Amino acid sequence: MRTEVAEFVRKTGKAPQCGFPAHRELAAGRAPCRHCLRLIRVNEEELFLLPYDPFQELGVPPLPGPVFIHRDN
Ligand SMILES: [Zn+2]
């Protein structure tokens, strides 16, 4: 996920492609961050969970799936 997209989610609390609220919580299980590609530390770091289609720019039918990103950088 591009940095501008992750920053949009962190700033607005919404999924960028559909406008749904992004779910925010303390990481409770294995969750790789789609922005920095590191694991979000369980019981230490907060995350956003949101629907995201990484191939939307290619013009293929939208196939959003759930992704995680760190709440903070
Ligand atoms: Zn991250």
Structure notes:
By secondary structure, the chain is of the alpha+beta class. It has one helix and three strands, in the order H-E-E-E. It has a three-stranded antiparallel beta sheet, covered by helices on one side. The longest helix is centred in the N-terminal third of the chain and has 10 residues, at 3-12. The chain is globular, with a radius of gyration of 12 Å. The site of zinc ion has 6 residues, from strand 3. Zinc ion (ZN) is lined by residues 33, 35-36, 38, 69-70.
Give a quick set of tags describing it.
single chain, 73 residues, alpha+beta, three-stranded antiparallel β-sheet, 3 strands, 14% helix, globular, binds zinc ion
SSE layout:
Blueprint: H1 3-12, E1 23-26, E2 46-52, E3 65-70
Antiparallel strand pairs: 1-2, 2-3
Bound molecules: zinc ion.
Major sheet details: 3 strands, antiparallel
Number of helices: 1
Q: Structural class from helices and strands?
A: alpha+beta
Quick one: how many beta strands? Answer: 3
Order of helices and strands: HEEE
* Percentage of residues assigned to helices: 10-25%
Q: Give the strand line-up of the largest sheet.
A: 1-2-3
Name the overall outline.
globular
Task: Please report which band the strand proportion falls in: under 5%, 5-15%, 15-25%, 25-35%, 35-45% or over 45%.
Answer: 15-25%
Q: State the separation between the terminal residues, measured CA to CA.
A: 13 Å
Radius of gyration: 12 Å
Compounds present? zinc ion
